Amino acid sequence: MGRLLGRLFVGFTTALICFIAYSPQIFIIWPWYGRELSVELLALLIPFNALVAMLLWNYYLCVVTDPGRVPPGWQPDVQDSDGYEVKKLTRGPRFCRTCEAYKPPRAHHCKQCKCCVLRMGKYHHCPWVNNCVGHFNYGYFVRFLFYVDCACTYHLAMIVRRIYVATQENFETPEMIFIILNAVACIPVLLAVGGFSLYHFYLLLGNTTTIEGWEKDKVATLVRRGRIHEIKFPYHLGAWRNICSVLGDSPLLWCWPTVASGTGLKYQLAEGDDCHIQLIPSADPNAESWPPEDPSRIPMPEPDPNYKFTLPASPWTYENGSVNPHLQPSNARRRQVARNGPYSAVPPYHPDYKEPEAVVPYDPASSSEEEYDGQSGRGARVRRGSEGFEVKAIDREALLQRFIEGRTHEPGRYNYYNPEVSSESEAEDDTDDSIPLAARLRGRRAIQ
Questions:
Q1: What is the pLDDT of the chain when averaged over all its residues?
Q2: 266-289: string of b/e by CB count within 10 Å (b at 16+)?
């Protein structure tokens, strides 16, 4: 996303927040209380403005705070007892080819920020804050969603209360217009942001990012289908400790903007024998990684960046420049043997049994230029040469004649029927068989 477009998104979001926050106070609540300052008015508006102030503050911090970048020259500690995050194929430390640097655990590359973001909270660059959500601003992002829900709920409660009172008395037309505009603006925001915030609160309880939540869904599908055994998520510390890892150790400061603890380069892991963590020492090749691989998918090895294709100096590729002796050309004799087979199709006691011919070994001196594929009477004879296939010309009439003779002269295949003449009348009729029917009709008419 471009810098100008990102600023437009941030400006639109800020304008929408200010409209929903301040237009009802000026055009709805203030006329409702008679445009006079009172204790009831202050008791109604002070909590609402406090929620709006916290909302804008956390939104500002989420926009301007760097989500976290990998320090230049950072390398994983391979001697650490907790291990390090590994790649699926090479089982070595994760490496970002775009940044040309190692990637810490839970870090992912952002194309918009053009760097690897520590603990990337969303699977893409967030346009509404014009920033990535990472380790150092994820707490501000969660608080911002929380205050949006609280402020919109308070806003709707005030509007509904005003409409209920207005049913008993008349109110001005501008007030009605702003009631409709605020309802149209606030209700969709509450529904959209409310559903989105509930999802992120669920991820917060599991100490999971959006990318890791997608990975957990894939692992659950593989476990349900029986392809892999159940594997525990390595960063799940329990609901309480998960919240403390993002919002701070003190519950009294969970709603107050605080700086995230830690460096974002290393995270506490779950304890227990049933936890199969992704941070594994390279000396343990049997350890499993997170996310686990799908056994049905064979991963392709990564290409070697240093490999350069070069043509061989000679077209021959076997040892000293000669032809591979194991390569046997498919000439006519070999194709015929492969078609007929070295074994007989019938058992030895069958009348048609013939001794199978021995397979003639390939002789390099023989040439396939003089051998034809096919047998006499079976169809076109094809010869394979160095420039392709050559079909020998055939006489179709002679081919058909040989086919008919081969079928009719086979002993015991056909029985010829010779009719016997039973009477003289039938014999006379038989003599007329050679005369066309039309000629016979004309002759009979002439006689009549």
A1: 77
A2: bbebbeeeeebbbbbeeeeeebeb
